[in-house]
Amino acid sequence: MRQPFTSRPTLWLAALSLAASSCGGQAPADPSTPVASPTPAPAPTPPPDPLGLASAPVASVKAYIKTVESPERGSNAYREVVKDADGVFVLYVGEYVVIDSTQRNADGDVCRWKHDPRYSWDNFDDMMDVKSSSDPFFFKFEVAQPGYAEVTSMIDNVESNEVKMRAVVRK
């Protein structure tokens, strides 16, 4: 016949002793005593930007004429472009033009971006013969004939200023 648990006092005391020693055998802490808690792990540091750019988001975009190759593409001769009295850039037929865009954050620092620029243009008089570009930041064209055109860019849904240009025949 099997004996009830209470009839084995030695076994019962051994089990109680083992349980107490595995729990540390200490009295409960005073609730008014501060309890140490683990220090939270620091937030992960973002990887450094390989281009050395400031953090986003993009707050402003400036489009500008980067280069004007004159008198024609392939000449490797460049000139400073000037504005007329109306603030419009003056170009000459045959020149090769590159427009660039720069994005800045709210602090005015050149910053990272999520989406490459998208250029838009109004080529009112077919002044521009638009060329392809392997660099998404460069909008390239050859001045095909006298006329007027405007170009803007958009980076991360922020639109740039208008680059206004008038082409004339070189005298």
Entry summary:
The protein has one helix spanning 9-22, and strands spanning 60-69, 89-92, 96-104, 118-122, 128-131, 139-143, 147-155, 158-159, 163-168. It has 171 residues and is mainly beta.
Question: How would you describe this protein?
Answer:
- This protein is mainly beta and 171 residues long.
- 8% of the residues lie in helices and 32% in strands.
- The chain has one helix spanning 9-22, and strands at 60-69, 89-92, 96-104, 118-122, 128-131, 139-143, 147-155, 158-159, 163-168.
- Strands 2, 4, 7, 8 and 9 form a 5-stranded mixed sheet that branches. Strands 1-3-6-5 form a 4-stranded antiparallel sheet, with no helix packed on it.
- A hairpin with a 2-residue loop joins strand 7 and strand 8.
- The protein is elongated.
- Residues 1-16 have low confidence and may be disordered.
What keyword list fits this structure?
disordered N terminus; 8% helix; four-stranded antiparallel beta sheet; mainly beta; five-stranded mixed beta sheet; 1 helix; 171 residues
SSE order = HEEEEEEEEE
If you average the pLDDT, what whole number results?
A: 84
Number of E-type strands: 9
Assembly form of the protein: single chain
- Structural class comes to mainly beta
Strand content: 25-35%
